[in-house]
């Protein structure tokens, strides 16, 4: 039987994503840096705090974050593991509703406010339409997460970003999927006086043909498309029941299985 591996879009095996919290005004500068270099990020916003305390105003959300993902971060940023579950549910649904009214698509991601998370909350999230949520601790590694509801990044941007970026760019073994996931808050670049760090990183990482630049939810959606794939018992036939393509490595080559198609793989 031929060996079949899932690949990222275009047959790539490396993906880069960013996750920034709180929607402070410094997001304007961060988004412009990402846009200049073709990088994609997820921006976790508090729908009940927009326009307050140096946060991006509601009227600016749709246009500023176009091409990126607007994602939830609870309505008012409480430490949810200490809250009644009714409050947790309301904080998430109210945030989704406020953001969806602005961006015009279902908001399906979350990052835990203050990193606050519990087993009960993780069980609750799918019932509230949340498909991934990011934690504060990082792995230092480049693996895909086992559990998207307990998603840990590679690093915060203050954790040896440049060295990790070089390590990521150097990977050349296509038998693995590598994900570099960077998180933080854009106001930290002002606070720490280190905008040069992210500007240099974006310039170095952008424009690489072998890297898939994706938002958090695009990665979740793509892996769900992969999971939905159906193969014949000998893996010679691949059926993709989803609307978008899935790419697979077959032997030494790459095959795109378009949405709705059944493809014969390999020679
Ligand atoms: Zn936050």
Describe this structure in words.
With 267 residues, the protein is an alpha/beta fold. The protein is 31% helix and 21% strand. The strands form 4 sheets. Strands 2, 3, 4, 7, 8 and 9 form a 6-stranded parallel sheet that branches. Helix 4 links the parallel strand 5 (109-111) and strand 6. Helix 1 runs parallel beside helix 7 and helix 5 (161-170) packs parallel to helix 7. Bound molecules: zinc ion. Zinc ion (ZN) binds at residues 21-22, 73, 77, 113.
Number of helices: 8
Total number of beta strands:
14
- Rg calc: 19 Å
Could you give a short account of the major beta sheet?
Answer: 6 strands, parallel
Question: What pattern of helices and strands is seen along the backbone?
Answer: EEHEHEHEHEEHEHHEHEEEEE
Tell me the distance between the termini.
Answer: 12 Å
Label the CATH architecture of the largest domain.
Alpha-Beta Barrel
- The CATH superfamily of the largest domain turns out to be Glycoside hydrolase/deacetylase
Bound molecules: zinc ion
Give the fraction of residues assigned to helices.
Answer: 25-40%
Q: CATH fold name of the largest domain, please?
A: TIM Barrel
Name the shape in a single word.
Answer: globular
| SS content category | alpha/beta
